[in-house]
Design brief:
The protein is built from five helices and no strands. The model has no long low-confidence stretch (mean pLDDT 95). The chain has one domain: Orthogonal Bundle (434 Repressor (Amino-terminal Domain)), CATH 1.10.260.40. Helix content is 59%, strand content 0%. This is XRE family transcriptional regulator.
Length: 73
């Protein structure tokens, strides 16, 4: 499961409602929640945040928490 999937599970989000509100298909939401190789677009992240009434920055921080800058030599 992806970080987005974990976030949505913790919030007990109904994916059908999110799909209806955002226009993102249930299949796409499932891919975003379950497949690590699926790339999440910023517009999708923003729409999901609006649909579940969460600050987009909160989801962004959670989804990207493992990203780090490269260390310089």
């Amino acid at each position: 499961m992806t970080e987005l999937g974990l976030f949505l599970s913790r919030k007990s989000v109904n994916r059908s409602d999110v799909s209806r509100k955002t226009g993102i298909s249930k299949t796409r939401l499932s891919e975003l929640a379950n497949n690590e190789r699926t790339k999440l677009r910023v517009d999708e992240l923003y729409l999901i945040a609006l649909a579940i009434d969460v600050d987009p920055c909160d989801i962004f921080k959670e989804v990207c928490k493992d990203l780090k800058l490269k260390e310089e030599n």
